[in-house]
Amino acid sequence: MSIHVALNHVTHYRYDRAIDVGPQVVRLRPAPHSRTRVLSYALKVSPAQHFINWQQDPQGNYLARLVFPEKATELRIEVDLVAEIAVFNPFDFFLEPHAQQMPFAYTDEEQHELAPYLETLALTPRFQAYLDGIDRTPIPSIDFLVRLNQQLSQDIRYLLRMEPGVQTPEHTLLTGAGSCRDSAWLLVQLMRRLGIAARFVSGYLIQLVADEQALDGPSGTDVDFTDLHAWCEVYLPGAGWIGLDATSD
How are the residues of the chain apportioned to helix, strand and coil, as percentages rounded to the nearest 5? Predict the structure, then answer.
């Protein structure tokens, strides 16, 4: 059984005089490979006098490029979408034999195609110490990923941070706190240092109140809410890109 959720996202700027609005690239359309079905999508832009071109980046994400020929006193971008929220087993996938146990190595072909997602930042003291503390004892790959994701969730306190940008992994570990994007970037860098291709992902988090209280474990949120969110995806041969959310464990 699924639930249909309608989402409305408005970004609105007002200016105290008419200004030239430069070309804008809007990344507010869910990726086509998302496991959550998007049943309808609409993008409304003001001022009405504008040109729009839909593009795709190398990862297949949709980009809306907007050009405004006239001066404007406001810029308003509104997204309306309907998504189908359904329960599925996140572990329902097949792993290639060479990737079933950590640590594993990608094939030469995989290594070549995944090169951008294996690039790492320079090592720093706190990051190096945290990396060295990760148990590398051979275990099933899924168990390893779940364990590391849980560990990071426990070690990094969630922080609602309105400042722009992403903290460095070193800063996040030093303070022991960060926003979802900070934890996601830290996890990406840890995974890459462990030889696992990883990428930073952003999107929408939709959480609904459960119809019935859980008999074992927490029931989840007390109120329906939606927010922007960030997490990490890792590439597992045979399964593809798998999401890990260190904020929500």
Answer: 25, 35, 40
**Cα–Cα nearest to 21, from 13, 11, 29, 31:** 13
Q: Rounded distance, CA 71 to CA 82, Å?
A: 33
Look at residues 40, 44, 43 and name the one whose alpha carbon lies nearest to residue 4: 40
Q: Are 65 and 31 in contact (CB under 8 A)?
A: no
If residue 227 lies in a helix (H) or strand (E), which one and from where to where? strand 225-236
Q: Where do the H-state alpha helices sit in the chain?
A: 108-113, 125-132, 141-155, 169-175, 180-193
Contact 81, 42 (CB under 8 A): yes
What pLDDT is recorded for position 222?
Answer: 77
To which residue do tokens 């699924």 refer? 2
Residue 213 has pLDDT above 80, yes or no: no
Length of the chain in residues, anyone? Answer: 249
Q: Which residue has the tokens 């990760």?
A: 134
Beta bridge partners of 229: 203
Which residues, including other chains, have CB under 8 Å from residue 84's CB and lie 6 or more apart? 2, 3, 4, 5, 36, 37, 38, 39
Q: What is the mean pLDDT of residues 31-47?
A: 92
Alpha helices in 133-205 (DSSP H): 141-155, 169-175, 180-193
